[in-house]
Amino acid sequence: MLKTYKFYAIICLYEDDMLILSYNDHMIKSTKKILTNKFDMKDLSVVNVITRVKIFRTLDRFILS
What we know:
It is built from one helix and five strands.
C-alpha cells in the first residue's frame, strides 16, 4: 500500500509582515526558500506576537489571545 501525505502552508500578509503557518516544519522551510529566492526577506524566527495578537504554541495547537 502506498501512503501519500498532503502538506500545505498558509501565508498571511499584513502590510510589510508575513506569517507562514504549517504543521510540517519542512513545508515552512521550503516555502521560505522559495520566497527568499524571489524577494528580499528577513527571517525573524518563531513569532510570538503579530498585529497585537499573542501566539502561544503547545504540542498540538496554537492559542491566540
